[in-house]
Amino acid sequence: MSSLLSNYIPEPILEQILLHLPSTTLIRFTSVSKSWLSLITSLSFTLQRSLSHPNPTLLLIQPTPSSHYSTTFSTTPPPYSTHHPFSLRFIGSLYGVVCFVEQSVGHDHAITLFNPSIRTYLRIQTPAVKHTALGFGFDTCDRDFKVIRIFNGVELYSLKHGGWRGIHCRYRKLQELQFSNTQCFLHGNVHWVVSPSYATKSYVLIFNMVEEKFKKMVFPPNLVLDALCTLQIKVTVIEGYLSVLDCSGIWMMREYGVAQSWTKMFTLNLERGCISKVFGFRSSSKVLMLLHKKGEISLHSFDTKTQEIKDLRMKGEIIAACEDTGSLVLLDRNSCHVSKSQAKRRR
């Protein structure tokens, strides 16, 4: 079949046709020939397909079903069952792959990479430790997904090479920093909001996935963050801008890497609610916030275009929210497939 098509259709045009096909069709087409398998499973094809996706669906990963119907997003369960619905903590989402860590009291366990589009996942085993921080990103030079973990030292996991290795770090007291419980990836860097235990001013700590080095990014004087409220600060990406949120507003770095470009863009009125999780998206004007209010957890959205806060009437925990781009990352024999009962998607 592939040889017949190649006689009539130039390879670049054939690739463009394949780029617009659904994931389920592409998976079947990997059996056509070795050349098609090589093309469809190549990282360059996968990334091109993710980046060219015009209107990705917003996807929520929930531990329990929701009866609320939404035309804005789809919902799906996590790839496997856990003993407690709050035991999976979101780390990041990139090119259709979601990264989260399994937690128990005082310890972190396996780190999971999950592709909800094709229902595959990979559990990365780690010793049961309490991580100071975790991050998920992509190395554009080596074309590799990586996970960074900070505990007694610094280690980096490479999906391409399938293992952990130690990273030399000139910041010898990373374990003494207080990290916000959110992180994000933008322009090749993982970002955390941190505060030194001996100081009152916070800053953004970044780790570059290509150079594999840490750097600091300062806040301007008029963005006052002290060590006592660092755990309440959330960092995310909103419409392609590095952003931080607290219970009063949203600040955006309008020119990446320029501290003076931090600007308070929006004021939030959460009616005494407290943000526990925030999910920003590169291609959407909506920001999803999981709020604690009057003893309940509920999902709200904030639209940066209309500046409207909307109660989505969804109660309970949300593990993650991501843009479903139909990615084919993890389409290989080393990944586990989600069972049919777990894979059933709900609207």
Word description of this protein:
This protein is mostly beta strands and 347 residues long. It has 2 domains: 40 residues, no CATH class; 296 residues, Neuraminidase (6 Propeller). 13% of the residues lie in helices and 43% in strands. Strands 3-4-5-6-24 form a 5-stranded antiparallel sheet, with no helix packed on it. The chain has a 4-stranded antiparallel sheet with strand order 7-8-9-10, with no helix packed on it. It is globular, with a radius of gyration of 21 Å.
Key features of this structure:
347 residues, mainly beta, Neuraminidase, 2 domains, 5-stranded antiparallel β-sheet, 4-stranded antiparallel β-sheet, 24 strands, 43% strand, F-box-like_dom_sf, SCF_F-box_component, F-box domain-containing protein, F-box_dom
Short description:
Residues 3-50 form the F-box domain. Helices cover 13% and strands 43% of the residues.
CATH class of the largest domain: Mainly Beta
Helix/strand/pairing category: mainly beta
Number of helices: 6
| Helix proportion | 10-25%
Protein name: F-box domain-containing protein
Domain F-box: 3-50
InterPro entries: F-box-assoc_dom_typ3, F-box-assoc_interact_dom, F-box-like_dom_sf, F-box_dom, SCF_F-box_component
Describe how the helices and strands are arranged.
Elements lengths: L1 H7 L2 H9 L3 H7 L4 H8 L1 H9 L5 E5 L11 E4 L11 E7 L2 E8 L2 E9 L4 E5 L8 E7 L4 E7 L3 E5 L4 E4 L10 E10 L2 E8 L6 E6 L4 E6 L15 E5 L2 E5 L3 E5 L8 E6 L6 E6 L6 E8 L2 E8 L4 E8 L4 E5 L11 E2 L2 H4 L4
Parallel strand pairs: 1-2
Antiparallel strand pairs: 1-23, 3-4, 4-5, 5-6, 6-24, 7-8, 8-9, 9-10, 11-12, 12-13, 13-14, 15-16, 16-17, 17-18, 19-20, 20-21, 21-22
